[in-house]
Design goal:
single chain; alpha/beta; D-Maltodextrin-Binding Protein, domain 2; 2 domains; 5-stranded mixed β-sheet; 11 helices; 23% strand; globular
Length: 263
């Protein structure tokens, strides 16, 4: 990875302050151009009013406010985020973005701010039949393009048909139509769906085997250390002054930093 995860966790939870002379275009213009996708609830998604919303949106706006930047959000397909970052069309990515060794070859990650797991949504009537992910082998499952659920399914459900969609909501529609047996996503995405679903038809099962602990981070262009340091400083400051907890309580009903403290 880009650095020791243990060191990153200690850095974030220590709430220390970094000093950075920051001279990128984002700093010169006092604008942070942020890229995200629009269908990854509850982190980044289009609300009923047609505007982008979510935990990550509130978080990056608070970080920008703390650091003195105007935050401009650009919504795009998930698989277009890294190319747009590399081309310089955006300054950073925040979109429930999992820190991984493969992605770290293309971008640099901030300190982690969320520890995530993975689960799959199924019909309640199928809960006993598919009470472990191994029982999905040979069945049709739905996942999201370029997301960790797709990587997992292709590796550990190699005899299954993996139907890949651009957004999680599309996978739930397929599931509801009976076109797949399960929708595999990061756990908070599935939890948010279940919390909002009024049909009562679905439940979720957490995947615990073969799952490395997944951490979300903010991505910047490879080698852009000055912006990376600035973002890490912003994360530490909003954690220290209680803003992070306030945003977290609004979206999750708990402070998600507590999971990192346990680590």
């Amino acid at each position: 990875m880009i650095k020791s995860l243990k060191s990153a966790l200690i850095g974030l939870l220590g709430f220390g302050f970094l000093s950075a002379s920051f001279t990128s275009d984002a700093a010169d213009n006092k604008v942070l151009n942020v890229g995200c996708e629009g269908a990854f609830a509850p982190f980044t998604y289009i609300g009923d009013d047609g505007n982008i919303t979510g935990f990550d949106i509130d978080l990056i706006k608070e970080i920008g406010k703390d650091l003195g930047y105007e935050v401009k959000i650009t919504v795009m397909p998930f698989d277009g985020l890294i190319p747009s970052l590399k081309l310089g069309n955006i300054d950073l990515i925040i979109s429930g973005f999992t820190i991984s060794e493969e992605r770290a070859k293309q971008v640099d990650f901030s300190d982690p701010y969320y520890l995530c797991g993975m689960s799959y949504v199924i019909e309640k009537s199928n809960a006993k039949e598919y009470d472990s992910y191994e029982k999905l082998q040979g069945k049709t499952v739905c996942t999201q393009l370029a997301a960790t659920g797709t990587n997992f399914a292709q590796k550990f459900l190699d005899k299954s048909e993996v139907k890949i969609f651009n957004t999680p909501p599309e996978t739930y529609i397929e599931l509801g139509n009976g076109s797949c047996v399960a929708a595999i996503h990061d756990k908070p995405v599935n939890d948010f769906f279940l919390a909002k679903d009024r049909s009562g038809r679905f439940t979720s099962i957490q995947i615990k085997q073969h799952i490395d602990k997944e951490y979300y981070g903010i991505a910047v262009r490879k080698g852009n250390k000055k912006l990376l340091d600035e973002i890490n400083r912003g994360l530490k400051e909003v954690a220290a002054n209680g803003t992070f907890e306030k945003v977290s309580m609004h979206w999750f009903g708990n402070n998600i930093l507590d999971t990192l403290k346990e680590e």
